[in-house]
Design goal:
- This protein is mainly alpha-helical.
- The protein has a single domain (about 1-110, about 230-420), classed as Orthogonal Bundle (Neurolysin, domain 3), CATH 1.10.1370.
- The chain has helices at about 1-20, 25-30, 35-70, 95-100, 110-115, 120-135, 145-150, 185-200, 215-230, 235-240, 250-280, 290-300, 320-325, 330-350, 365-375, 380-390, 400-415; strands at about 80, 165, 175, 305.
- A two-stranded parallel ribbon has the order 1-4. The chain has a two-stranded antiparallel ribbon with strand order 2-3.
- β2 and β3 form a beta hairpin.
- α3 crosses α11 (about 250-280), α11 (about 250-280) packs antiparallel against α12 and α11 (about 250-280) packs across α17 (about 400-415).
- The longest helix is centred in the first third of the chain and has 34 residues, at about 35-70.
- The radius of gyration is 21 Å and the shape is globular.
- The two termini are about 30 Å apart.
- Bound molecules: L-captopril and zinc ion.
- Zinc ion binds next to α8.
Length: about 425
């Protein structure tokens, strides 16, 4: 699809120029209530805040992969081979938890297995997600949601299975479209998609131009915020999935599992648009599309392709959002906002313990305040909207650091004697 993509880039830039922007990248960066260049600098600042933690995780995972596969496959130093991470894009690494799990600390449960053992089916997964939001005081999903959503993969035709959420009429016709599998990834994805739907419903009474999220990172963060609570052992026990919630001895396994998804994601969430910004600006042309992609993969993620790439390879085309043309920095932002929301919500609920063990299930007052933020839609600059719920006016990765603090300390100890980085 490389030639098609190059043609698409040219057409898209023509449209952006017609609207008065330098190129499509500048148009995308203009959506954050600040100058486009200031926004780019803002993402640099945020990346610097989390980069040391990512490097600690990278170092630890590389050492475990080296033990598992040997020097010939995964050397002790340098980048990690991208095909060893349990995900086609190397974007979330939770699927290799069993390969990298801490020695001597066992995890007493596995959400994939619990869902299976308790006989969950796709509809029950969605109902469970709805129940979480209901516990916060949100009205139930409309009957039409159940009639019109696509929840399982149809057998009679091809569909786009990448999960999405839809608002058809700006009233109450909200739906999801998702080929749900009964596993932990999709358990979280259900909460993610429903977050979009509850947000859409919350801002439906705004004038048409304001019927959107405060910025696109907010839209992606709502459901992930819900999933942070809905993934705690305490909550899984409350809804009968887990017989007995483990104690503090399982904090590290839990945090490592979570970090393999959330922290590993950060550099990927950043680089997809770093690449597109270069492509739209013309700094990178079709002949270097793939090289520029792998250069960024190395720079930010510390990953390498398993072998030389063919001259005509177009690897970014394999990421849904690239040909689908969905901006991606929103997910990087969401991976920070969700922890800001979580920290604020737990504080509102009077939670005194460590952040990763906090769940706001059933906290009606938190739900009321969260909905009040969502109802604002895009009616004012996002920092003001952020403030209504968190009291903060900046995107701030210190919430990420707070949540994962015990894990970061543990990683530093584990990595002692290693040369980290690549
Ligand atoms: O595309 C999505 C959602 C739909 S908005 C399923 N996500 C990104 C991805 O899959 O690459 C959620 C996390 C990142
Ligand atoms: Zn989403």
């Amino acid at each position: 699809m490389k030639p098609d993509y190059a043609r698409f880039v040219a057409l898209s830039n023509e449209g952006a120029k017609g609207l008065g922007y330098k190129d499509t990248g500048a148009l995308w960066r203009s959506n954050y209530d600040m100058e486009p260049d200031a926004f780019a600098a803002e993402t640099d600042r945020l990346w610097k805040q989390v980069e040391p933690f990512y490097k600690n995780l990278h170092c630890y995972v590389r050492a475990r992969l080296n033990e598992q596969y040997g020097d010939a496959v995964q050397p002790k130093t340098g980048p990690i081979r991208a095909d060893l991470l349990g995900n086609m894009w190397g974007q979330q690494w939770g699927n290799i938890y069993d390969v990298v799990q801490p020695k001597g600390i066992t995890s007493s449960y596995d959400l994939d297995k619990l869902l299976e053992a308790k006989g969950y089916d796709p509809v029950k997964m969605v109902k469970t997600g709805e129940n979480f939001y209901s516990s916060l005081g949100f009205a139930p999903l409309p009957q039409t949601f159940w009639e019109r959503s696509l929840i399982v993969r149809p057998q009679d035709r091809e569909v786009v299975c990448h999960a999405s959420a839809w608002d058809i009429d700006d009233k109450d016709d909200i739906r999801i479209k998702m080929c749900t599998k009964v596993n932990a990834d999709d358990f979280r994805t259900i909460h993610h998609e429903l977050g979009h739907n509850y947000y859409q419903r919350a801002y439906k009474n705004q004038p048409a131009l304001f019927r959107n999220s405060a910025n696109d990172g907010f839209h992606e963060a709502i459901g992930d915020f819900a999933a942070l609570s809905a993934s705690t052992p305490t909550y899984l026990q409350q809804i009968g999935l887990l017989d007995k919630a483990p104690g503090a001895e399982e904090d590290i396994p839990f945090l490592l599992k979570t970090a393999l998804d959330k922290i590993a994601f950060l550099p990927f969430g950043l680089l997809v648009d770093r690449w597109r910004w270069q492509v739209f600006s013309g700094e990178v042309g079709p002949e270097t599309y793939n090289d520029a992609w792998w250069k960024l993969r190395l720079q930010y993620q510390g990953l390498t392709a398993p072998g030389p790439r063919p001259a005509d390879a177009f690897d970014p085309g394999a990421k849904y959002h690239v040909p689908g043309n969905t901006p991606y920095t929103r997910y990087f932002l969401a991976h920070i906002y969700q922890f800001q929301f979580h920290r604020a919500a737990c504080k509102q609920a009077g939670w005194k313990g460590p952040l990763h063990r906090c769940s706001v299930y059933d906290q009606k007052e938190v739900g009321r305040r969260f909905n009040a933020m969502m109802e604002l839609g895009q009616s004012q600059p996002w920092p003001e909207t952020l403030k209504t719920f968190t009291g903060e006016t900046r995107t701030d990765a210190s919430a990420v650091a707070d949540y994962f603090k015990p894990l970061n300390t543990w990683l530093v100890t584990q990595n002692r004697g290693q040369t980290c980085g690549w």
